[in-house]
Amino acid sequence: MKNTYINLPIRNVADTDTFFASLGMVKNEQFSSEDTTNAKINENTFVMLLEDKRFATFVGGNPEAINNNLTIALQFDSKSEVDAFFEKATTSGAVDVTKDSPESEAFMYGKAFRDINGHIWELFAFIAEMPKV
């Protein structure tokens, strides 16, 4: 496997570009148009952000009806990296949707936000070895 592209519906390219730029994600002009934009998460992972009408052509349906059971999880190296990214997101208009998770708090630290287009992003860092099952 070479690269990963996550396709998500959005409301407005300009607002979405501003939001993802505030998170430090670089826009890839090669995969952008008037109704589509692209943000680089890391060297091999990208998020394709398509306005609703364009996204509907990808999935053959209304984005509102299919966009409610998805979270995107990003792993960081430390609590401070999670907190810094979370702070950038909430300062840029994202909403804190972090929930307590007692079953994982002993080995994992996390925060979550809903972005300006309604997508939920989970941010986490392992703070201890995961229990063996």
CATH class of the largest domain: Alpha Beta
> What number of domains?
2
Q: What's the CATH architecture of the largest domain? A: Roll
Q: Gyration radius, to the nearest Å?
A: 16 Å
Q: Class by helix and strand content?
A: alpha/beta
Unreliable spans: none
| Count of individual helical segments | 4
- Helix proportion: 25-40%
Shape: globular
Strand order within the widest sheet?
A: 1-4-3-2
Along the chain, the helix and strand elements come as EHEEEHHEHEEE
Provide a descriptive summary of the structure in words.
This protein folds into two domains: 69 residues, 2,3-Dihydroxybiphenyl 1,2-Dioxygenase, domain 1 (Roll); 64 residues, 2,3-Dihydroxybiphenyl 1,2-Dioxygenase, domain 1 (Roll). The chain contains four helices and eight strands, in the order βαβββααβαβββ. A four-stranded mixed β-sheet has the order 1-4-3-2. The chain has a four-stranded mixed β-sheet with strand order 5-8-7-6, with helices on one face. A hairpin with a 5-residue loop joins β7 and β8.
